[in-house]
Amino acid sequence: MKRIPYLLLMFAMLAGCTTVHQPLVTVKDLNVVSLDPAGAGMELFLRIKNPNSFDVRLQGYSYDLKVMALPLAKGGAREEIKFAGGAETDLRIPIRITYGDLLEIIKRRPDPDKVPYQLAAGLDIETPVGQMTVPINRTGTYAIPKQYRPSAVFGVLGNLLKF
Length: 163
Hints:
Layout: H1 3-17, E1 24-36, E2 39-49, E3 56-67, E4 70-83, E5 88-98, H2 99-107, E6 115-127, E7 130-142, H3 150-161
Antiparallel strand pairs: 1-2, 2-5, 3-4, 3-6, 6-7
């Protein structure tokens, strides 16, 4: 009977050693990075801080991006990246948007300096004690870069059509 308190104390100490703290995710930026015949390429730039003393691994991610409450892009990928213990790691997630989806946004005539968006994403993380999903939820506004605004694009097309 005298050993039970010692066993409970040792069990509590061992349980404390396996505590896994969820990585802290900061959304740093959302940028248009390209325009091509199929649509626009965007990039979600995240910074992940692993507060644990041990490494954890990204196994994959998923995302759902809405602009002006319209579904704009959904996707994900299986990708392995190590997040070192006690360190910060940058992660870039590519997002593809078709011109048809962009047209639906343009029809609503948003203020190009303050286009509202909602991002819901999840990072699938492998830890020494199992897998966890780190949720990312962000609502904000996005300023469309001047070179990608409809007026600039149509201006370039108009100049190309002039002879």
